[in-house]
Amino acid sequence: MAEPNEGDHATPEVEAGSHRTYRIPIVIAAGVVAIAILGGVLVWHAEGKTNKVALAQSPKPVTVLAAMEEPFREVHTYVGALRPWFESEIGPQFISAYVDTVLVRPGAVVKKGQVLATLDCRNATAQTAAVAAQAKAIDSRQRAVSHEAARTRSLLDGGFVSANAAEVITAKSDEEAAQLVAEEAQLSKSALDVNDCILRAPFDGEIAMRRVDPGSFVRPSTEMLRVVDRSTIRMTADAPESDFDGIAPGAKVTVHVVSINVDIAATITRRAPSADLGTRTVHFEIDIDNSNRRIPVDTTGEIHVPVGEAVSATAVPIKAVTMNDKKATLFTVEGDVAHIQTLIELGEVGPDVFFAKDALKPGTMIVVEGRALLKDTDHVAAKPAPAGLTGSAGDGKAHKEGAN
User: Fold this and answer.
1) Which of 175, 195, 215 is the last residue of a domain?
2) Is 111 exposed, middle or buried (0-12, 13-18, 19+ CB in 10 A)?
3) In total, how many domains does the chain have?
4) Rounded to 5 degrees, what are φ and ψ at 246?
5) What average pLDDT does range 157-165 have in this prediction?
6) Interval 189-237: pLDDT, tens
């Protein structure tokens, strides 16, 4: 038999190399397939997050609440000032001088006649003393001349003196009497100047303003201090002449004090009988008890005057509407669709706008928040407004000024 050739059988090294040669393409192919699968998964994941629906077609989130049935009574509002019952500007009236002392500061409570400030009036005091001395001398001379005239007239009947001499002596006595009166008047003026140096409170009240300090020079009509009595407040305002009947004395009103955010029930106290020729407005006032001195004076107040009778209406928070004169634009929601409406308002009271019940039915869902981006017939995703969002329509409580 012939022996096999040496090349008929592969060595182990050759067999191992051939196996590695076959595995490399398989691994590469498997890696390509894996990468392709991973890329496909990533593409699918990214496509899954893409919104296929246009934003304009998606429901818009809004906050809604139901319009409430509330009594409405028209209220006229006037802006006025809270004035003190008494006020006085304290300063010299007759004399110019340097300020010696100022004994009070703003907020101090003072009594009538209390000394508030003093002026350096040494010159006025000296002049007063000189005038007083001169008046005393004239008085002495006048008495002497008067006695001489009386004696002369007694000698006239016996013919011991002439009538001319008697008349001269009498005229001199009258002259001295006139000079005495003039000096007494000058003394009174000097006394006023001296009294002007001590400034006193004209009534019980409080110091509202201090404009000078010791060492300042003041003249007549200079305002040094301001005193106010605010135990009673005078709420003053002006109304159009067409509202003359509505502001009659005795009418019940509500005064809103802006500075302390308080509402006070009050009554109109007085009303002017005529209108101002320039503004055609009628002045009226309300007296408010302020014995606790809670209300500051010379601040702003609002007077709310109810007019007519209360009627049943539909209330909507004012923040849910856009006002244009008497027209109000708002969005109502039916199902998941918003509709724009333009209605004529009955009026506004507090935070609410009122409409006739036949124009806007109670219970209608009104868009309160999110209406800025809405258009008519837009689809919405509505959520209820939180309780007490605004106004009586928001919390279901009927609290209306003038509704009672």
Assistant:
1) 195
2) exposed
3) 3
4) -75, -15
5) 65
6) 655 556 778 889 999 999 999 999 999 999 888 999 999 999 999 999 9
Q: Which amino acid is at 366?
A: I
Of 109, 81, 85, 107, the C-alpha closest to 232 is 85
Residue 341's closest CA among 397, 389, 353? 353
Structure tokens at 165: 């001499």
- Check whether residue 372 and residue 318 sit in a common domain: yes
Q: CA 55, CA 164: separation in Å to the nearest integer? A: 125
In a shared domain, residues 297 and 317 = no
Q: Is residue 161 part of a domain?
A: yes
For residue 270, CA distances in Å to 69, 247, 289 come to: 36, 9, 15
Contacts of 352 (CB under 8 A, 6+ apart): 70, 315, 316, 317, 318, 391, 392, 393, 400
0.90 exceeded by the pTM?
no
- Flag whether 274 is in a domain: yes
Among the candidates 276, 306, 336, a domain finishes at: 306
Contacts of 144 (CB under 8 A, 6+ apart): none
Domain extent for 243: 78-83+229-306
Residues 249 and 297 in one domain: yes
Residue 12 lies in a domain: no
DSSP assignment, residue 379?
B
Tell me if 332 is assigned to some domain.
yes
In order, the DSSP letters of 87-138 are: EEEE--SS--EEEEEE---TT-EE-TT-EEEEEE-HHHHHHHHHHHHHHHHH
